[in-house]
Design goal:
Helix content: 25-40%
Strand content: 15-25%
Number of domains: 1
Shape: globular
CATH architecture: 3-Layer(aba) Sandwich
Strand order of the largest sheet: 1-2-4-3
CATH topology: NADH Oxidase
Bound molecules: flavin mononucleotide
Largest sheet: 4 strands, antiparallel
Number of helices: 6
Order of helices and strands: HHEHHEHEHE
Oligomer: single chain
């Protein structure tokens, strides 16, 4: 799969078979996350790989949009280190670039993945910080749920000529 094809066919997958994910695949996905660009090349991202079913179930129980997590079998929590990047906007942008790389890498590996939002919803980021013992200076931005897909989703073409402004607004 080339990059353009991956971008055009990636979809959020929330239904999984429950089959365990190979550690080599998790490693490839993490490496894709690390390759993302970051403002000033500060690389403020930190990653928590969660595979224990009890933890995944606890998160799903307390985060209403994370119900897919236990059957996915793996959640990678992408966090931003505020001591490396103090501007919150840049921290979010850096983590988001990393998250998108990871989603595309999972898709290339024929795995299903979905971005589960945490920051800036205080309730969600606090739940995750509490469950995963995340220190104060680290902001959990999102969880990338990854698993073997139990559903095939069609690609959607979202191109919209009306949103493209030529030279000036
Ligand atoms: C910032 C952000 C937060 C999101 N949060 C969630 C979430 O908490 N749970 C979820 O199931 N999907 C979440 N999504 C996935 C979106 O719902 C999904 O990308 C969107 O509906 C478009 O569908 P697609 O990814 O299949 O193209 C999030 C996506 C983004 C970018």
């Amino acid at each position: 799969m080339n990059v353009i094809e991956a971008i055009n066919t990636r979809r959020s997958i929330r239904q999984y078979t429950g089959e365990v994910i190979n550690d080599k695949h998790i490693d490839i996905i993490l490496r894709a996350g690390f390759q993302a660009p970051s403002a000033h090349n500060f690389q403020p991202q930190e990653y928590i790989v969660v595979k224990e079913s009890e933890t995944l179930e606890l998160i799903a129980k307390r985060h209403k949009y994370a119900k897919a997590l236990p059957l996915a079998g793996c959640g990678i929590v992408v966090c931003g280190d505020t001591t490396k990047e103090s501007r919150e906007g840049s921290l979010i942008a850096d983590c988001s670039a990393s998250i998108q790389n990871m989603l595309l890498a999972a898709h290339e590996l024929n795995l299903g993945a979905v971005w589960i939002g945490l920051h800036p919803v205080k309730e969600f980021s606090e739940i995750i910080s509490e469950i995963l013992d995340i220190p104060e200076h680290i902001i959990p931005i999102a969880i990338v749920a990854i698993g073997h897909p139990n559903v095939k989703k069609e690609a959607i073409d979202r191109y919209n000529e009306e949103k493209i402004h030529k030279e000036k607004w």
